[in-house]
């Protein structure tokens, strides 16, 4: 649907009106036959029809194009009243900037931001409403620190609330202690497995060194025996030499 033509100041060219809703074009598209439509209007029309609503020429969604630039410029320059005129807004601005203004307009009806409150109020009065809204959050006047979220909470029991808070804190502390305990046990198990693995590797290395040493001692004894045999042979040879 387009913009209500009654909101506009001055004359609006016929070419800037939607051929379907007859209001001023909103988010316009143009058919090959040069008739212009609001995007929502022409898409809705083509769900049930396959021709232009003005001259009945065959058209398809794929043939729709943006409005000619000069027409788009003429459209954007049109002056219109804010949609909140009935609530007191007197702003008149160009169509190009109307959406930005209406998003920030002080006369726009917006919902209260407090959970549970269904009041719709003008943006300019929101702060005043929030200050007295029965659903506003505030601390307990008795000093327990409980945040009151609604009118029903004003009768809460401070002692019971503090006891509940204490139980929650105790439960949270127990959970954290258990988590820390499990984490420490996991780390100790990991370190224990690492130490056992390292001890096994060292033990294997020690056994290998013992084996190597044993072989070396056996080789030394063999060399010493060979040395003694060689010395005896030399002594025997020396004796035989002397006898000769």
From TrEMBL:
Molecular functions (GO terms): ligase activity; zinc ion binding
Domain RING-type residue range list: 18-56
Highest taxon above the source species: Eukaryota
Any Pfam family the entry gives: zf-TRAF
Coiled-coil residues: 192-243
Signal peptide from the UniProt entry: none
Alphabetical list of PROSITE patterns matching this protein: ZF_RING_1, ZF_RING_2, ZF_TRAF
Classification via SUPFAM superfamilies: RING/U-box (SSF57850), TRAF domain-like (SSF49599)
Protein name (database record): RNF41 ligase
Species assigned in the record: Upupa epops
Gene it is expressed from: Rnf41
